[in-house]
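Exercise: predict the fold of this chain.
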Amino acid sequence: MLERSRQKLTRKQVAKKCGVSENYLKDVEEGRRIIQDDQARRILKTLGTSQRNEAEFSLDEIAATVDLGTLAPQTPKPAAPKPEEKKEPVKAASPEEQSGIWLDALSSVLKPVPVMNAGWIQVGRRMVPIQDGKIEGAKPDRVVYFLASDDSMRAMRIEKGDLVLVVPQGLPVDGAIMLVEYGAHRCLRRVKLLGNSNILLQSGDRELGAESVNVSELKFVGRAVRVEIAL
């Protein structure tokens, strides 16, 4: 809102260009409404960023690539000043400065979440909506996507290439699919508590298998909460 006012753009001008109501834009600017992921994509497309997949954008890139130049009001030619007056010429705002309008609105509702492979190397990122300052109840900067590297969890409907959203969880949760560090690598397993400090790690391609492991041999990285399948 501060950036929009500084650029001398009315809320009506921005709302008309993006096909939303003034009240909707006001609620987004003032933090009373959370913009939906598809709405954010539509706004970005309207503003000239349709050539890239939204998963490839960071918030900095949104600010750098959104072009609101067509929204800037035309500065009327100033009348000739009276002899006793001197007026400074009006400097037009740059596209980079104008792009801050949507950065203010989107930075609080979208977060670029890293995609990590089994070697814990970042191989991409996905834009994820933030609700009430959190993603799936966790701090946004602690959430990751895990790229399934094989079909060892196919029996639980997670296949190679699928993206699994993982929230931090350092203790085992009975019955949950968790990202665990075991044998110097990270993998997804369903966890069953056996007692006596033993954990049953379940996996399987076509049929379900299991392995009993002492809890001291495991590190629990997080709990899987959502799967995005690869097509």
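Check your answer against the key: The radius of gyration is 25 Å.
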